[in-house]
Write a structure and sequence with these properties.
By secondary structure, the chain is an alpha+beta fold. Among the domains are: 248-293; 381-425, no CATH class. The protein has 16 helices and 14 strands. The termini are far apart.
Length: 478
């Protein structure tokens, strides 16, 4: 039974966050009531964390209307959605083999006709625009909760603090997440749906320093750069719309009346205005003089101005500029080192995102004991170079293990020492290579040189060595 079902057992109507908080304080579960003790703390310090209200604006004006943001988000979505999920078993406290079972089916087909790639693409899109992505399971399907319609409900943690008289009192010490509230259609629209923390996958790869649990979009710190990029685009459009020439000033003869100047302007704009009239020869009346007061694209160095802005935006997105094909990225690098840019992108951007997504989705998955949900990159095409590097590392490790075993260390300790990068884990068998034996030494001579235990005095010599025994060198052993 989830929290919503528990709350519906009572007669309380939930139409606001305050109603939800009050209901949490009064619901019963398995015969236990939870009403009395929490009322004061809820009323005094309960709060919610909400996604910033610019989610819709980001989606419309940036993702849908800015080519730089769209390119970067598209690259992140294509890369992020390329992996698949597997269970990873822990072996002696360390991650081990990857495997699959029917429980992973939920992520392979998250909804009718959906794939793991579709799920991940929506997750990273919400995280890029809102800083948060929320998912839950309803009727054996993954259900997306629009980020700006979700509230994270918090309550203060209590700490007992003594006062000057030695009396202990409870004071707030940090905030604890107690659940989520989802408003279908937006806050205040109908009855909200409360959910327990374990019922919600909350993917927030970048933390918001002003919140406890809420994430932050990487677009938020870039508003000035994005506004400047938009202004450059508008300038270009205006430039071409007004003749595709620098700004001009036309001076009229002092004798020209204002009415004549206005009529001249109307004729001039109709004849020479707009990009379709660019390049026409100007014909001016007597006494009129034209002067250029603006600058063209070359004088403004528009390419460099726009390129620097693109680099700053790409840096915030964690995408090297050469990958989406930005001008500055192509100027500072060539496709010969494209692989190095991909390695940086996968290592510092994608892998942390995949790790965070796996941990978030595990929250609502039925995870086998002793395992964790993990991502599988073995079929990701743009990580082929990483696979080649991994093969070289494994080859080097195998050679090191082989050398340890040849030196007389146990195979198990040799593997553990290389795996954990700790030579103190090596355990020697007591056997050494024949190359370390003295000349003429064999296993037989080594055993014969060891003192023999006293035998029964069957030979009449007290069990000692044979009196006529010769040293190994004189017995023909070399």
């Amino acid at each position: 039974m989830n929290l919503l079902q528990r709350l519906r057992q009572g007669s309380r109507s939930i139409v606001s966050v305050e109603d939800y908080l009050a209901a949490v304080n009064s619901f019963t579960y398995q015969g236990n009531g939870y009403a009395p003790a929490m009322t004061q703390s809820w009323g005094a310090g309960a709060s919610v964390e909400q996604v910033r209200t610019e989610f819709a604006a980001y989606a419309q004006s940036l993702y849908g209307n800015n080519s730089v943001v769209f390119s970067l988000m598209a690259v992140r979505q294509l890369a992020f959605s390329a992996v698949r999920f597997q269970w990873q078993r822990y072996q002696k406290g360390r991650p081990g083999e990857l495997f699959s079972d029917p429980k992973i089916r939920m992520l392979e087909v998250p909804w009718a006709g959906g794939t793991t790639g579709d799920l991940l693409a929506k997750m990273i899109a919400d995280a890029d625009l809102a800083g948060n992505s929320y998912w839950t399971i309803v009727d054996n399907e993954m259900v997306r909760l629009r980020p700006d319609w979700v509230d994270i409900c918090l309550m203060p943690r209590g700490a007992s603090v003594p006062d000057a008289n030695g009396t202990f009192s409870t004071r707030a010490l940090g905030m604890k997440k107690v659940g989520y509230v989802y408003w279908e259609g937006g806050r205040g629209n109908g009855d909200p749906v409360p959910l327990l923390p374990e019922d919600v996958c909350h993917f927030a790869p970048l933390t918001d320093p002003l919140a406890t649990y809420r994430g932050m979009s990487w677009l938020t710190p870039l508003l000035r750069e994005l506004a400047a990029d938009q202004a450059i685009t508008e300038y270009q459009n205006s430039f071409f719309a007004h003749g595709a020439t620098p700004n001009m000033v036309i001076k009229h003869d002092p004798a020209v009346t204002p009415e004549d100047a206005k009529r001249f302007k109307m004729v001039f704009d109709a004849e020479y205005g707009g990009s379709h009239n660019a390049g026409k020869t100007l014909h001016l009346g007597g006494g009129a003089d034209i002067q250029v007061v603006g600058a063209d694209f070359k004088a403004l160095d528009m390419k460099a101005v726009r390129g620097h802005g693109e680099v700053r935006i790409a840096a915030a997105a964690g995408v090297p500029p050469i990958i989406p094909g930005f001008v500055e990225g192509l100027n500072s690098a060539t496709y010969s080192n494209y692989g190095q840019a991909l390695r940086r992108f996968s290592g510092l951007t994608m892998h942390p995102l995949w790790q965070s997504a796996a941990g978030s989705l595990q929250q609502i998955m039925d995870t086998p004991a002793g395992c964790r949900l993990w991502y599988d990159t073995r079929d990701v095409e743009f990580l082929r170079d990483d696979s080649h590097d991994l093969a070289e590392v494994q080859q080097t490790q195998a050679a090191t293990i082989s050398s340890h075993i040849s030196a007389g260390f146990t195979p198990e300790s040799a593997v553990a020492a290389v795996r954990d990068d700790d030579l103190s884990l090596l355990r020697h068998t007591g056997l050494v290579s024949v190359q370390l034996w003295t000349p003429g030494q064999t296993e037989e001579t080594d055993s014969e040189e060891k003192p023999k235990p006293d035998d029964d005095d069957d030979a009449g010599n007290g069990g000692g060595a044979e009196p006529d025994a010769l040293p190994p060198q004189e017995q023909g052993v070399y």
